[in-house]
Design a protein that fits this description.
Elements: H1 3-45, H2 50-83, H3 87-112, H4 119-131
Helix pairs in contact: 1-2, 2-3
């Protein structure tokens, strides 16, 4: 097989990979939305608190969207950088990644209630709060 034939085969393979990753990202978002909706409705029908069910719904839906966006960004990178790396396509990729990254950060804050880089600080505060003795009567020593 000639070098040109191998390159053509490799380009075709990368296009399939990018298309598969796009499909996976879309499927993750769609299935995640359906699953989050199912859990939400089931919680309401079981007599759960509406506010807690709604908060859980937002968290589950946000996680599905975040995971799907990761796949879509990866598909864009493979499709642009590996297949057709022109300056125009790289500029478009940069804008797409910028918008999706901003959306991911916004969803991360919405789901977890803090910036992603504050995870260890929040975990430390939570552990410190758990280590404090409960309020109330204290034994006399």
């Amino acid at each position: 097989m000639s070098t040109r034939g191998v390159a053509t085969l490799f380009d075709a393979l990368l296009r399939w990979v990018a298309t598969g990753m796009e499909g996976a990202g879309t499927a993750i978002i769609a299935i995640g939305a359906l699953a989050a909706t199912w859990v939400f409705v089931r919680g309401l029908l079981a007599g759960g608190a509406a506010h807690e069910s709604y908060q859980g719904y937002r968290v589950n839906l946000g996680r599905a969207i975040l995971l799907g966006l990761e796949f879509l960004v990866a598909a864009d990178i493979v499709g642009t950088v590996a297949i057709d790396p022109t300056f125009k396509n790289l500029g478009v990729l940069a804008l797409i990644v910028l918008v999706r990254t901003a959306l991911s950060f916004a969803l991360e804050v919405e789901v977890n209630g803090h910036w992603p880089w504050r995870t260890t600080d929040v975990a430390f505060r939570s552990a410190a709060a758990d280590a404090r003795p409960p309020d109330g009567p204290r034994p006399v020593a």
